[in-house]
Amino acid sequence: MDGMRASFILGVVLVIGLTTSCQDKAEAPLAACKAAEAKGDLGAAVKACEQAANANPSSQSGLAAGTLLVAINGKIAEKKRAEAEAIAAAEPREEAKCSDWMVTCTPGGASHYKNRAACQKLVTDTAGMGVTCGACVCYSSAP
User: Fold this and answer.
1) What is the distance between the alpha carbons of residues 118 and 20, in angstroms, rounded to a whole number?
2) Is the entire prediction scored with pTM above 0.70?
3) Is the four-CA dihedral 33, 35, 36, 37 of positive or negative sign?
4) Please, what's the b/e burial string for 47-68 (b: 16 or more CB within 10 A of its CB; e: otherwise)?
5) CA distances in angstroms from 3 to 6, 8, 26, listed in the order given
6) Is residue 48 within 8 Å of residue 32, measured between CB atoms?
7) Among 30, 92, 94, 131, which one is least packed by beta carbons within 10 Å?
8) Which residues contact 18 (CB under 8 A, 6 or more apart)?
9) What's the CA gap between 136 and 128, in Å, rounded?
């Protein structure tokens, strides 16, 4: 009877061990990924999806995390593209309003130009010549 009892207990322990080891380790990070995406925190969503995909890449949750990661990275790329377009659209307005463009170079100091193109030409022409120039900035706006 004691042998049967020991076998039964060993069987129960094995079943419990197998059940817990089969648990999908990607489920919790996938849930965190979805929650972060829903909040609009795409950086946190990427981290959580990467964690889920790495935790169990071949599980259902791991595969879903990989798919969601691709979609979130697409959203991030689209957001960056839209931001770049907005900056590019604003530059001509800034160019028209600015009457004095300035760049500071080392060595050399500050140089002033009537337009951004002339200022940028100095930055481009001195690249690779041991001169380090900052960005061209509007120093004063036209009234």
Assistant:
1) 68
2) no
3) positive
4) bbbebbbebbeebebbbbbbeb
5) 5, 9, 39
6) yes
7) 92
8) none
9) 17
Strand partners, 111: 103
Nearest to 97 by CA among 79, 117, 115, 72: 115
| 130-140 residue pLDDT tens | 778 888 888 77
Q: How far is CA 80 from its chain centroid?
A: 10
107 cis-preceded (ω within 30 degrees of 0): yes
Q: Given phi > 0 = left and psi -120 to 50 = alpha, else beta, which region is 128?
A: left
Burial of 30 (0-12, 13-18, 19+ CB in 10 A): buried
Q: Are 61 and 26 in contact (CB under 8 A)?
A: yes
For 94-131, write each residue's pLDDT tens digit.
666 788 888 888 887 888 887 888 888 877 777 767 77
Instruction: Record the tokens describing residue 67, joined without a space.
Output: 């798919």
Contacts of 57 (CB under 8 A, 6+ apart): 26, 63, 66
